[in-house]
Design goal:
β5 and β6 form a beta hairpin. This protein is an alpha+beta fold. The N terminus is likely disordered. The protein is 35% helix and 17% strand. α1 packs across α3, α5 packs antiparallel against α11 and α6 packs across α9. It folds into two domains: 64 residues, Arc Repressor Mutant, subunit A (Orthogonal Bundle), CATH 1.10.10.10; 223 residues, Beta-Lactamase (2-Layer Sandwich), CATH 3.30.450.40.
Length: 336
């Protein structure tokens, strides 16, 4: 039997239907004026640019992106090639090297938290036969930091460690947004959106207070809100989205995606009450997900979210919800 794949919370591939491919990471968030970068800053900016171009880029393309002379960009690229972080192919295209990937994966796999989380994901896969993820919040995106998947399945997820998705369209993202935000204003800020000038939204008073687990910090550090014109993944861009008095909308991934911020806020209130979140085919048709919070062992620190992502025809959403208590137990007792 041929093996089909889906992107975790991102793209679904079944039968002869071609996958709806979405970039797993947003465009690089480097300086708005790349031409002013110098020295090490330019080298790092080039590394970020190449990290978002798996097919590589030519010197001419990179010089245009950096708004700098080819000779200047070439010197920076030479430093990256010399350090073996970037390769220059026979076709003249610069690409992230295998050495860079080796370093990245070695670091990711050696992190203490990742080592603690992996056995949890493995147990979830063994129990439910579906893919499990561990993710953290990064602005208005979620970043997948660990993954476990079943073997021998005809339909699988192709999500990758380090990949990203819009927080509002995923179970892990909505759960982390619920625990991160106290008011509707907080939600607009973390999504990088400007609230309507004449809001007709419900009371936005604090929804979470005190130091109980539902209020714990998501990542342990503050994230600066993106400017109103930001085009990070998950934010609808353009004048219509941000004009005075209008209601900004979020990126629609499927017919089920919540694109209204006030509606998303209502969903987050439900999530805070039940302490789990679901993705009802909101990121991609045919893919459901249920996420629960993951706390650092022995603390009240919310380290991220752990989810079970299931192909809808194999495991309907109601089956996941019926097993939420067991999912919580596995997450709370494994790897402690």
């Amino acid at each position: 039997m041929s093996q089909h794949t889906v992107h975790g919370d991102s793209a679904y591939y079944h039968g002869d239907t071609q996958p709806h491919t979405q970039p797993l990471v947003s465009q690089p968030l480097v300086s708005a004026d790349l031409s002013k970068l110098k020295g090490a800053d330019r080298v790092l900016a080039l590394l970020i640019v190449l990290a978002h171009r798996p097919q590589g880029a030519s010197l001419e393309e990179l010089a245009e992106i950096m708004a700098a002379p080819k000779s200047t960009v070439h010197r920076s690229l030479s430093s990256l090639v010399k350090s073996e972080l970037v390769t220059n192919s026979a076709h003249g295209r610069y690409e992230i090297s295998d050495e860079f990937l080796r370093l990245a994966f070695t670091y990711a796999e050696s992190r203490p938290l990742t080592q603690r989380v992996q056995p949890i994901l493995n147990r979830l896969v063994a129990r439910f036969g579906e893919t499990a993820h561990y993710a953290v919040l990064d602005g208005n995106r979620v970043i997948y930091q660990a993954k476990a998947e079943p073997q021998g399945r005809a339909v699988k997820l192709t999500s990758v460690v380090g990949g990203a998705n819009p927080a509002h369209a995923t179970a892990v993202g909505k759960l982390l947004l619920a625990y991160k935000t106290h008011t509707l204003t907080d939600l607009y800020e973390i999504l990088g959106l400007t609230p309507p000038s004449t809001p007709n939204t419900p009371n936005t008073g604090a929804a979470v207070t005190g130091k109980a687990r539902p209020t714990a910090s998501v990542t342990g550090k503050a994230h600066a809100a993106a400017p109103a014109h930001a085009t990070k993944t998950g934010v609808a861009s353009g004048p219509a989205a941000l004009s005075a008095g209008s209601t900004p909308e979020l990126e629609r991934r499927t017919a089920h995606t919540i694109t209204s911020v006030p509606e998303l806020w209502k969903e987050l209130e439900i999530i805070r009450a039940q302490q789990y979140a679901v993705d009802r085919e909101e990121s991609e048709n045919g893919l459901n997900c249920l996420a629960v919070p993951y706390y650092a062992p022995g603390s009240q620190y919310l380290a991220g979210a752990i989810s079970v992502s299931a192909i809808a025809f194999r495991m309907p959403l109601h089956v996941l919800e019926e097993n939420v208590a067991e999912i919580r137990e596995i997450v709370n007792t494994s790897g402690q």
